[in-house]
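quick one before i forget lol
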Amino acid sequence: METTIWVLGIVVFLALAFDFINGFHDTANAIATSVSTRALTPRRAILMAAVMNFVGAMMFTGVAKTIGGSVTDPTTLDNGIEVVIVTLIAAIIWNLVTWWFGIPSSSSHALIGALAGAVLVGAGADKVKWSGFIDIVGGLLISPLIAFAIGYVVMTILKYIFAKRSPHNVNKGFRTVQIFTAALQAFTHGTNDAQKAMGIITFALVAAGVQDHLDVPLWVKISAATAMALGTSIGGWKIIKTMGTKIFKIEPINGFAADLSAASVIFTATLLHLPVSTTHAITSAILGVGSAKRFSAVKWGLAGRIIITWFITIPITGALAGLLYWIIF
């Protein structure tokens, strides 16, 4: 029992570390557009994002249950704790590498890919719930397309409505409104992303026999929400620069359209208990908005490199987790 407690302690530490890193890695998702348009100062934007992330994380648990039981059944694994440990280590490594190079990659892809790879190597292909895995991956792949389409449509409508207005006055008004859409974006980020660490901790608790259901304990919710908020308070400046300035020159009206579009996709996924990538959603929304503004304004070379990173994340983290399991256990 004492050994189990120590091992679970390691799992909780790694899961909260993943959530903390996810916080500063994905801070850009909520505040990049509002910072780049000077709707908010960086300090105020990060503080607001941290608070709204915490609030969002405390309000929902459906995604956590999906993470905890859709890729594999923790009650059927004799080595569930080991699987969780290498899953988290692989996901953390990938998040740190992509953060270092300023690439807005997906923490969700990293975690799902690593979990599938760890189960595959550590327990065998028959222990992977391939239908659940495919459903999650499908949601992760479809959500950016929807966010792109919504961003394009929203920006097209705004262009039509404000076509005859002074661009200066329009952007001055939207700079104020952006504060609220950035807060909404941070809130929806918390409702979806923080639950991934909750789900993986609950998975470990079930695998260790501490509990026999996937309901998230209150202490897990508070711990994960706090870790996410603290990570958010650090900020991910490299990714903020990429998201806010390098894809295309964002003005307040564009930032409003992108934040609103991404938040609607993320929150809908949360209500459907689907883990989606907040990074994918906001980046795709920015691309959609930029395309509606002027197709040539988007730096498609950079966008292409980001998209490639999205597609390679699952196989790379899966392979990394499998290799770590083989080496460590």
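fyi The chain has one domain: 2-328.
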